[in-house]
Specification:
Elements (H helix, E strand, L loop, with lengths): L35 H11 L12 E10 L2 E2 L2 E2 L7 H4 L5 E9 L14 E9 L2 E8 L12 H8 L10 H8 L6 H7 L14 E2 L4 E4 L5 E10 L8 H10 L3 H11 L5 E10 L25 E10 L4 H6 L12 E3 L3 H17 L78 H12 L2 H15 L4 H14 L1 H11 L3 H5 L14 H5 L3
Antiparallel strand pairs: 1-4, 1-11, 2-3, 4-5, 5-6, 7-9, 8-9, 8-12, 9-10, 10-11
Helix pairs in contact: 3-4, 5-10, 10-12, 11-13, 12-13
Bound molecules: protoporphyrin IX containing FE (HEM).
Protoporphyrin IX containing FE binds next to β4, β5, β6 and α9.
Protein name: Catalase
Function: Decomposes hydrogen peroxide into water and oxygen; serves to protect cells from the toxic effects of hydrogen peroxide.
InterPro entries: Catalase (IPR018028), Catalase_AS (IPR024708), Catalase_clade1/3 (IPR024711), Catalase_core (IPR011614), Catalase_immune_responsive (IPR010582), Catalase_sf (IPR020835)
């Protein structure tokens, strides 16, 4: 035993001379109320947990860095964006990344069929930029108002506390736009082998803005240098029988052994505007931008080279949000992105506390000084920078003191016009085209696994859900619908005879499915 071990203390700094026995009156007597050391220890323990994330509760994190190539395609990156993190070469921007599953609780198995979260915090010289993405490049829904219903259907039943396939498909059956994502999710792509060998994507559409205030629409993607590896359900079950945390283990073991995972950061860009010539809406996150028309342009690389020192302080308390952008990267009118942007900081003020941005894991890099007049609240750790006169915690000041606004930059002024209302996108034909294309372009074993998984799920669903799901699969691709129906013993003719969903356009332009490329 080491002679020089630090002495155990209370959190008030008092030495603890006996950590084995509660103070009692006599050997068998009652405990006393002034037993401060005991009370502090137990009551702090009682508060060790904070609410788990309402989604993406199970996760693992790692630190690393990002390096920009300074180019977008063959052009200097500055042609499209004034964000220094993408323009300046030779700079290593510190990063923190949290990978996760979505529907499971904090200690749920990492082998579950579920999208994987891919949340990235760039601690840039211009402040933080968070890109809160997933491994799959599309999502189930395209309007944020649907998110709570969707998550309720995917999470456990409120009565039995069990996740049920019928509840998942009951929701999905009402949403043709979800069929594309479901086709990915129920294939082996729904169970990445681990967090290192998977892609990442911002999923939602953003804008890049340059010095002249000109903007393009853009999507962000992470391509793993390790390659992509997925699991079938059978392979996943085998791993799960031995280890419910295999992906966390894989990430920590590889980084600790010096085998640092690396991803190339890519963008897809297109002019801003309605882009009416496209069969899909580029602001609809249930669609991919076909890569033959909008190639993935490498803009930099990320390397993860350090595991957290403490899971709770860094991974559990980390807070990512889609509102956290740097100058030169902007929001698009993607409705999901706009809804998400309210949700993240709102939940973090509840989950971690009003001052979650003072925690080292969430604060900007030390080189970036935080000067704001937002103050106080529970657990205030320090006061933000105050300028030369600490009495003036407001702005503007007639005395010309306190904090001053930053110099203006040329802003991108997007023209907006329209009638206030509740709308669905009118470009719905690709709800089926991209799903059908995906079905046809899977490798044989992936298609087999997709059908087997869907057949197993359909067998757990009541007939109305079965028929509507087969109707959707059949509209995506006739073979797709037929094979699910045959496998699960569902009447294909009865499914095909269903009317369109109430309030939804009839599926049309299925011919386009044959000509669609990616
Ligand atoms: C986490 C809301 C859609 C990716 C969360 C959290 C909320 C939330 C409340 C918990 C955050 C926390 O406690 O720190 C929403 C809403 C959505 C939406 C309202 C739709 C309107 C999406 C989409 C993606 C996504 C489309 C993928 C692009 C993530 C990730 C996390 C997360 C990766 C975990 C972040 C972390 O590791 O801490 N979301 N989300 N979400 N969401 Fe979403």
């Amino acid at each position: 035993m080491s002679e020089n071990r630090p002495i155990l203390t209370t959190r008030q700094g008092h030495p603890v001379r006996d950590n084995q026995s509660t103070r009692t009156v006599g050997e068998r007597g009652p405990a006393t109320l002034e037993n401060y050391q005991f009370i502090e220890k137990i009551t702090h323990f009682d508060r060790e947990r904070i609410p788990e994330r309402v989604v993406h509760a199970r996760g693992a994190g790692a630190h690393g860095w990002f390096e920009a190539y300074g180019k977008i395609g063959d052009e200097p990156a500055s042609k499209y964006t004034r964000a220094r993190v993408l323009n300046e070469t030779g700079v290593k921007t510190p990063m923190f990344v949290r990978f996760s599953t979505v529907a499971g609780a904090k200690e749920s198995p990492e082998t579950e069929r579920d999208p994987r979260g891919f949340a990235v915090k760039f601690k840039t010289v211009e402040g933080n930029w968070d890109l809160v993405g997933n491994n799959l490049k599309v999502f189930f829904i395209r309007d944020a108002i649907k998110f709570p219903d969707m998550i309720h259907a995917f999470k456990p039943d409120p009565v039995t506390n069990r996740q049920e396939a019928w509840r998942f498909f009951d929701f999905v059956a009402q949403h043709p736009e979800a069929i594309h994502m479901v086709t990915w999710l129920k294939s082996p792509w729904g169970i990445p082998a681990n967090y290192r060998e998977m892609e990442g994507s911002g999923v939602n559409t953003y804008k890049l803005v340059n010095d002249k205030g000109e903007a393009v629409l853009c999507k962000f993607h992470w391509q793993p240098k390790q390659g992509v590896r997925n699991l079938t359900s059978a392979q996943a079950s085998e791993i799960q029988a031995k280890d419910v945390g295999h992906a966390t283990r894989d990430l920590y073991d590889n980084i600790s052994a010096g085998n640092f995972p690396e991803w190339e950061f890519c963008v897809q860009i297109m002019p801003d505007g309605p882009n009416d010539h496209l069969s899909f809406d580029p602001l609809d996150d249930t669609k991919r931008w076909p890569e033959d028309q909008f190639p993935l342009l490498p803009v930099g690389r990320m390397v993860l080279d350090r595991v957290p020192d403490n899971f709770f302080a860094e991974v559990e308390q980390s807070a990512f949000g889609t509102g956290v952008l740097v100058d030169g990267i902007d929001f698009s009118d993607d409705k999901m992105l706009q809804g998400r942007t309210l949700s993240y900081s709102d939940t973090q003020r509840y989950r971690v506390g009003a001052n979650y941005l003072q925690l080292p894991i969430n604060a900007p890099q030390p080189g970036v000084k935080v000067y704001s007049n937002q103050r106080d609240g529970q657990m205030t750790y320090g006061v933000d920078g105050t300028g030369q006169n600490r009495h003036i915690n407001y702005e503007p000041s007639t005395l010309g003191e306190g904090l001053a606004e930053a110099p203006k930059k040329t802003e991108y002024h997007q023209p907006v016009e329209g009638r206030l209302g509740r709308y669905q996108t009118s470009r719905t034909e690709d709800d089926y085209a991209q799903a059908g294309h995906r079905y046809r372009t899977f490798e044989d074993w992936e298609r087999e696994d997709l059908i087997a998984n869907l057949v197993a799920d359909m067998k757990q669903c009541p007939e109305p859900i079965q028929l509507r799901m087969v109707w959707h699969f059949w509209h995506a691709d006739e073979d797709y619908g037929r094979r699910v129906a045959e496998g699960a013993g569902i009447d294909l003719e009865k499914a095909k005879a269903l009317p369109p969903l109430p309030g939804r356009a009839a599926p049309h332009k299925r011919l386009q499915a044959e000509t669609y490329t990616e």
